[in-house]
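Entry:
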Amino acid sequence: MRELVEVVEASLPILAVPDSKHSGWIFVCHGVWYNIALIVPSAIFLVFLVYQSRKSYWKLSYGRSYIMIAYYGLLWLVSVLNFAWCILQAWQCTPGKEMSWNILSLLTTSGMLFLEVSLVAFLIQGNNHTSGLGTLTRTFVISGIIVGVDIFLKTIYVFGFGVNLFIDSNYKTSPMKWGLWIVHKLLLTAPYGILLLMHHSKWREKLPARPAFYSYVSVMFILNAVALFACLLMQNGAGFGFWVYNVTVICYHAFYLPFTYITFLADFFQEEDFQLENVYYSEMKDAGFFDADWN
């Protein structure tokens, strides 16, 4: 087993360190396949948003939902930031660009975290598309406090203590960095795990009656749990964890935003209001929420 770990660790720098023979930005740092895996899905999703923008604008104007307008605008902002983050991977390996890369990474990850936290916080309240401005304000205030604390702590460690949280050009980094990421991933994994446990407990009725919500929670729990496992491996010096961690980074930055759109926003833009009511009724019926009525 030790020999296998040594072989994997020996191969990692080839993938993580820039190749001086290539001057193209796409070859820098993690290599061409890593960059393509990030750029292509994020670019396709951004093009999709542009293509659907006219139809989406009409639907938002007709629906007059503060909730959907806010989340659609937030999705646009985060998608642009994430696309910039994906195409500027070379910054983390370019001398003099470390500060710019840290700022861009902080903005991008904070935007995605805000979207992630606010969606869960909003849906747990059991609201629908027609909810008003008060619910939106309350949800955004709670999410803003959580993300604000996260930004404050990351800023202290990155710019105060010089911990390279966002620079992953080499797997041989400070153990302190992976210790911080362990805490961060644990704080993200725990709420999703609690929601899954609640879904199979007597508190199930207090949660949203939408199977799509639990599919979302399950996927996010698995993703964060794998990322937590990768950070634990890196904290203990197992270089294989760096490869696993990079896979979770690709999955999150390349597919989280499209996954969120499909799960929570697609129905609003594709279906009429009366059709949405039938969809939600069918989902609740499939989830077993009306079984008691028949008994």
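The chain is about 75% helix and 0% strand.
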